[in-house]
Amino acid sequence: MSTDSGPTAKRQMRIDWTRVMDPVALLRSAGSVARTAQLLERGLTRRTLAAAVQTGEIQQVQRGVFALPDAPPEFVAALTTNSLVTCASAARHYGLWLLHEPTAHHLTCPGGRCAPHLNHHRRRSVPVDRRLPVVGLVDVLIHALHCLPPVEAAVVVESSLRRGDTVRTFLLDRLQGNRNGKARAALELVSGCAESAIEVVARVMFRRTGYFVETQVRIDDVGRVDFVLEGFLVVEVDGDEFHSTREARNRDRRRNNELIARGYLYLRFGYGDVTFRRDDVLEQVRTVLSGRVVR
Length: 295
What we know:
Blueprint: H1 7-20, H2 23-29, E1 33-35, H3 36-41, H4 46-55, E2 59-62, E3 65-67, H5 73-80, E4 84-85, H6 87-91, E5 106-108, E6 119-120, H7 137-147, H8 150-163, H9 168-172, H10 181-187, H11 197-208, E7 213-219, E8 223-229, E9 233-238, H12 246-261, E10 265-270, H13 271-276, H14 278-289
Parallel strand pairs: 5-6, 9-10
Antiparallel strand pairs: 1-3, 2-3, 4-5, 7-8, 8-9
InterPro entries: AbiEi_N, Restrct_endonuc-II-like, Restrct_endonuc-II-like_dom
Domain Restriction endonuclease type II-like: 206-287
Keywords: Endonuclease, Hydrolase, Nuclease
């Protein structure tokens, strides 16, 4: 049995490896879209790449850029414009909450210029992702605070702070100066204690009405509730999927009964209520609060 370990054997081992290299798996590990040089550096041969394109497993979206058929459109847009994904377009890739999906890609573009249909963000202050074409998490948050409507920006940042990715002061240090006033105002809406995106929206909505709002309040024999308004109105917001089982409905009834027994009033709203029917929500809240002397 040959034990040759010289240059010829090493070349043969390299060739054998590239023969079994899975181009789809390799591209998937790079975010489903990559440049030719990146794929070649990781051991893929041009012949294997061309064969995968021929079979339709991989698509050549432009010269020097290859993608899987299901590649994230924002990643494709980034590589075809020599850019990086950020803001709302990068939120999902970092596992952040997002109130609305972006209608256009948010990118940082070379030379400060992007196509008119793209949302361009200029500044980058932290290292970018080493594997995917996205900016660093802190820059995603900073760009969101500058770009998105205040409540939507607060939703993105709230999820990151709640998870412990960073702290408010770290972001605030990067938002000094007159040009950052809008971003600082959006950051003021963030508390870091909400358990869902819709809680952030509801908290801002209630506080803007001038009500005294307590969040994440623990009540004996009831547990934690989302909000207590004016000291006696408990408001909870959630999606229907969290309370669709018989066990969940029974638990809700027990909680509601205990709240009434303790002197609280109670309202529950779903995602659609808080997102699309805010006037109706506030009218119901006003109606309930008007039945008692408000603090």
